[in-house]
Amino acid sequence: MVDSSTVLWGQTIAYTIYCLVILLLMAWFAYKITKTGKDNKVKPALFYTFVGFLTALGVSLHIITYNTIPWTPVDLNRSEYVPDKTFDITVENHEFFLPAEKLVIDCNDLVLFDVTSKDLTYGFGIFREDNSMVFQMQVVPGHRNDILWQFDKPGIYTIRSTEYSGPRGIFMILKDVVEVLPCEGS
Amino acid sequence: MSFKNTFMNGAEGLFKPDSLTQIQKIVLRFVVVGLVFYAFAVIEGMIMRIYAVDPIPFISTDQYFAILTAHPLVGIFGSTYALVFGAFLFLTPYLMKKPLYSVKLANWSLILLTSGVLLFWIAGFISHYAPLYTLYWPLPADFSQFSVWGGTFFILGIAILMVGTLFFIINIFKTIVYTPKGWEKQPSAALLGSAIGYTGLRNMFAKKENKKEHLVPLPVAAIARGTVDMVLNTGIILFTGVLILVFMLAHILGFDLKETAIDALLYKNWFWWGLDLIADGLVLIFVAGTWYLLAVMITGKKLFMQNIARAALLLELVVSWTVWSHHLLSDQAQPAILKIVSGEFVTAFELITQGLAFFIVLATLWSARPLKMTNPLKFLLGGLLGFALAVPAGIMQADVGLNRILHNTQWIIGPHVHVAILIGLTMTLYAAVYILFPIVTNGAKLYSQKLANIHFWFHLIGGIGMGAFMGMAGLNGMLRRTLYVDGEFNTYMILAALSGSLLLIAFLVFFYNIVMSVGLKGVIGIFMPSKLKTKELLPE
Question: Closest Cα of chain B to A12: distance in Å?
Answer without folding.
Answer: 8
